[in-house]
Amino acid sequence: MNRKNSLFDALVVKRVVATVSALLVIAIACGAGIWQVSRAHGKIALAANLLERQQMPILNANTNSWALEEASERRMIARGSYIPEAAIWLDNRPQPVPSGGAGAAAKAGFYLMMPFRLEGRNEVLWVNRGWAPRNRENREILPSTDTPTGIVNIEGIVFAHPGKVYALGSEDSNVDIHKPRIAQNFDLEREGQLHGWSQAPFILRLEETGVADGLVREWAPLTTGVDRHYAYAFQWFALAFAGFIFWLIGGLRQYWRKSVANGD
């Protein structure tokens, strides 16, 4: 009993600062590791849900006023005409990298958001037409792209928004809505108020491929980065284990030295 108590004293009682520090490191590292695992599982679940919803019947934007809840992440077709003079170029967007792709994720550019007036309906549908690279010398120079004229048919996937990036301050309130502009983020409600038109409560991410209009639409899957999350989680759990081992070895060395000095 005394031996056990002396071991406990050597590990914990006489090393309160070291024990508290080790517990803190282990708690933080385990928490971070669990968070990384949860992010990976969240991406996998989102990707599975997206795939399931894409296999549902295709919606038609011209036949009904769809709510976000019923249309989100589903495929949708639409017929109408683009309004290029009201386009918004969303800055600081990484180039989409399809499954199996590599090497281009760090390249920055724009998402081209363009309103699409639905045929036969007094309603506008905002469309994420794709990605284009940014001019390296002058970011104010917009990429050269082609926009179809007249009535066209498009198809894509419905999302609540095109994704958000960190922005310092708010968007400029004095904007010219009659010409293309650069913005950090897209506010669907604000655009409806600025233009004074009725619009769908979601955006459509275009899924066209093989169209030479200067835009990239090889969208990255939602599971992109899952392996990285698992790798980060392993590193955090390894740090927690290393912290425990260092604490344990340090305490045992003190216990053994004391035992030798006492002739035990």
Q: Whole-number average pLDDT?
A: 86
Shape label:
elongated
Q: Mind describing the biggest β-sheet?
A: 5 strands, mixed, barrel
Number of strands: 8
Q: Hey, roughly how much beta strand do the residues contain?
A: 15-25%
So how many helices?
A: 5
Q: What is the number of independent domains?
A: 2
Strand arrangement within the widest β-sheet reads: 2-4-5-8-6
Please write the string of helix (H) and strand (E) elements: HHEHEEEEEEHEH
Helix content: 25-40%
Radius of gyration, in angstroms, nearest whole number: 28 Å
Class derived from helix and strand content? alpha/beta
In whole angstroms, how far apart are the ends? 14 Å
Characterize the structure shown:
The protein has 264 residues and is of the alpha/beta class. The protein folds into two domains: 2-41 and 240-261, no CATH class; 58-206. It is built from five helices and eight strands. The protein has helices spanning 2-11, 16-54, 68-71, 188-195, 226-261, and strands spanning 59-60, 75-82, 88-94, 108-118, 124-133, 152-159, 181-183, 199-206. Strands 2-4-5-8-6 form a five-stranded mixed β-barrel. Helix 3 links the parallel strand 1 (59-60) and strand 2 (75-82). The chain is elongated, with a radius of gyration of 28 Å. The two termini are 14 Å apart. The model has no long low-confidence stretch (mean pLDDT 86).
